[in-house]
């Protein structure tokens, strides 16, 4: 799974690096180094000014902030990687 985090100007101002740092802490916490990669991406054309644009694999662009990053990770990454049974 690849998580792309936008580091374009608008998103950068919303705290791209806080989001990346939060994701990295979560990867550490759940030992997901082998299954999750974080990639910096350029403007995704979805500058919302309400958060940082984040995309999981080729999914929808979503808005995440430094405060919601950990919750987002648990909901969209940890949950998706959990075995279904
Ligand atoms: S700067 Fe992030 S989507 Fe445009």
Specify the structural class: alpha+beta
Contiguous uncertain segments of 5+ residues:
none
On the 0-100 scale, what is the average pLDDT?
Answer: 95
Number of domains: 1
Helix content: 25-40%
Question: What's the number of extended β-strand segments?
Answer: 4
DSSP helical segment count: 3
Our estimate of the beta-strand percent is 15-25%
Largest sheet data: 4 strands, mixed
Report the bound ligands by name, code or SMILES.
FE2/S2 (inorganic) cluster
Helix-strand sequence:
EHHEEEH
* Name of the top-level CATH class: Alpha Beta
Strand order across the largest sheet: 2-1-3-4
CATH fold field value:
Glutaredoxin
C-alpha end-to-end distance: 20 Å
Task: Report the radius of gyration as a whole number of Å.
Answer: 12 Å
Name of the CATH homologous superfamily: Glutaredoxin
Approximate shape: globular
CATH architecture: 3-Layer(aba) Sandwich
Structural features, described:
This is (2Fe-2S) ferredoxin domain-containing protein. InterPro entries: Thioredoxin-like_sf. The protein has helices spanning 9-14, 16-29, 69-81; strands spanning 2-6, 37-41, 52-56, 61-64. With 85 residues, it is an alpha+beta fold. The chain has a single domain, classed as Glutaredoxin (3-Layer(aba) Sandwich), CATH 3.40.30. The chain has a 4-stranded mixed sheet with strand order 2-1-3-4. α2 (16-29) packs across α3 (69-81). Residues 6, 8-11, 43-47, 53 line the site of FE2/S2 (inorganic) cluster (FES).
